[in-house]
Amino acid sequence: MGVFFIVYVINVDKTKKSIPEIREMLRNQLVNKNLLFKILVISFSLYLISFLLSFWIMGFVPAFSPRPEIRSQWSGVFIVGMITHALPPILFFSSIYFFYDKESSVKRIVVFFIGLMTFFLNLLILHRFDIVYWLIVLLAYLYYGTYKLKLKNVVIWVTFLISILYGVSTFRASKFISNAIYYTSAMKFNVKYAIITEPYMYFAMNVENFVMGVQKYTDFTYGYFTFNPILSLIQLKHPLNEYMSINEFPDLLTYSYNTYTMFFEWYRDFGIFGLSFLPFIWGVIIASAYYNLRKKPSLSAVTLYGAFLFVIIFSFLLTC
To answer: pLDDT tens digits, residue range 1-42?
Structure first.
């Protein structure tokens, strides 16, 4: 909140567009529909190829794995496996395509097919947070770019979101595993709601492990976790991991739940300084993106802010 106040003070005397003005500007924005259509076709082709290659290499599809406990471990190979996480941009741009192209029925049918197939294949992979990412960015666009986000629609979206998370969680854990987690976690609600145990403990243990880690952690890694995506892309993550003998899950309260909040990444790299400074930097970036949207509304600005909304909402989580 302090960061947003600082950025607010910086922008307080600058002209900002009202929400209705932003909606009109986004609705009238010129979009190269032919280019967008080509990008969607190419992106879906790459997505489909990566799915088939990953299936060929891994030898199974997560949703049909005979071992429910390993369903979520299907990631394919480097680069190819990353493309299987391309659902958010494909579905987002498929969704907004219908707002900008109201003439070509053939292309609209093709785009609908692309979106439907991408969604279905993602359900087979069980990447639930890719779907959540898409929905959050789309909701940001619907709010700032259209008049369609009403209470009724919000209820429908929330119901759909909960159904997706619940459904994928059911696929990711068999009834036997759900019951085992329920009893080992000593839950106090009825066993028929055992499927809720995993997401509940997932959230609760994030904080517990974070508190335990901060109290005992002493081997700071000075950027290994903060710059993990970059190190992964340049293929230095695993060599550094072996060279530095990094413990991925230190000082866990219980090894049944090996997750932390995102803030622990910064603490284990730079200590209290990282925990204070890096969230501040992220806050400045996100707040600046918000005020950029209010001052210069555009499709790219609302998409970027929607992506940052996902970061804000799920900064409580480390892994998905």
So the answer is: 555 556 555 665 667 888 899 999 988 888 888 999 999 999
Place of tokens 């970061």: 311
Q: Please say whether the dihedral angle defined by the alpha carbons of residues 88, 94, 98 and 101, taken in this order, is positive or negative.
A: positive
The model carries a pTM of 0.78
Count the residues in the chain.
320
Nearest to 195 by CA among 213, 177, 209, 207: 177
Tokens at 229, concatenated = 């995506």
Tell me the pLDDT tens digit for each residue of 142-151.
999 888 877 7
